[in-house]
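pinning this so it doesn't scroll away 📌
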Amino acid sequence: AVALILSTIYLALLYGLKVPDWEYHIPIENSTSPSSTSFLVKCSVRGDTGLACNAVGMIDCKILGIQHLYRKLVYARSECSINSLDSGSLPMDAPSWCQAPFDPEGLLSSVMAIVTCLIGLHFGHIIVHFKDHENKILQWMILSLGLLILGLNKPLYSLSYMCVTSAAVGILFVVIYLLTTVLKLIRLRVKTVVKWCTYNYTLHLLLLKKLKSYPKN
């Protein structure tokens, strides 16, 4: 019920709020005086799920401020340029929103992240309430396939994105459960998994520290 309420609130805000035209500024580098270039993004639409005129970005801009949003996500999009701004300039006909900051996992997207956690909690409840393997697997597969049918991946952390990712993880969980618990083809120990993850994380930190110690040319 909570997941349904949160999903309804998300959809109502995403498709109900009207996104007006908005403007952002990009500072001009190597300038003797503080100056910036202004860009106007024309929207005046409702229910847009693209990167320019969605309610997710509008809410983040109003509450967090555009200066606090992620600035490198949309640069590699095909609508803007084949290369990122670090390796090439934008074409002359690039959309006005190409240099605008945007965070696909902003405030409104956090609602869908909560729903994802609730789905994982439901998977755990199935383990508690169903004793035999057949019922557990059946309940998990019904939920996962249902989410997969509803899902359609998009650039936003939307309801459809949540459905696709939750369904994929659910199916993978069923496969692991079959291999380790039902068929017992793989002997998986929690202690071994934690030790392996910790070892690789420590190795990664040591390697990163070593690379940072090299002098720059």
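📌 and the second one:
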Amino acid sequence: MEEMSNQPEALVEAPVRVLNTADPFEKARLGAVIATKWLQGFISLPYHPSSRLPVKLVPPSLMPKLGKARSLQSRQAIVHSLVHTESWAIDLSWDIIARFGEQEAMPREFFTDFVKELGSFYGAFPAHAGLWDSAIATAKDLLARLAVEHCVHEWIIIKQARGLDVLPTTITRFRNGGDNETADLLERVVYPEEITHCAAGVKWFKSISLRSRNPITYPWSLISLESVTSERETTTTVEDERDVIQKFHATVRTHFRGPLKPPFNEEARKAAGFGPQWYEPLALKE
């Protein structure tokens, strides 16, 4: 296993090693090492990932139904889908750093936000590469990457389902099936992490859009390490807020096929700073 030395390394270079690591467990381990080195100050600011050998990839349209967690096989398939998605999430977070970090001259807080996101077996079920397909489609547009991968796909993580919009129901079904251990894992780990992933997407889509309108009014120094909260809310004009949301709508309609499907988990979306004005208009067919 490859270990990182204490020699300085650029954060836009380190992710390439994660992306080129095929084994999902080693990928996660190496990602954690790089994240630790970044947070400790050993890494400085300034393609398709290696194949997931254990997993048979099939087109999304050929994916078997996951079921409703009433049987052991259904629960295994749902957990497998979540594991597969989280493995893609490692690649996506490092890819956004490697692909856009240097060319966009992003502030340190941008890198830190995405570094933080990070009975059966992986490979027992087929999976698809829909998340990475979207990453390729948005490879030249940072706003499109943030909007589609971090604000839309975070809510579509279970095959064609609505991710966090249905995750509470999935947790309940696991409990009803007697699998409290997996339900606890989904509730304590997966659910909060998906909110965090989406919050990072909303925060940086809004911040980059505002800064592109007026760099003097919206300098990077106004951006909180945690979220777009009180300080930003008091300095954002109604007109700017409206324009950012309209830009989000236009970006999603350009890079994501079809409308978003209600019902929506309003509580989780609100926790991510993702109010109904952001997503409800996208649920309507034009």
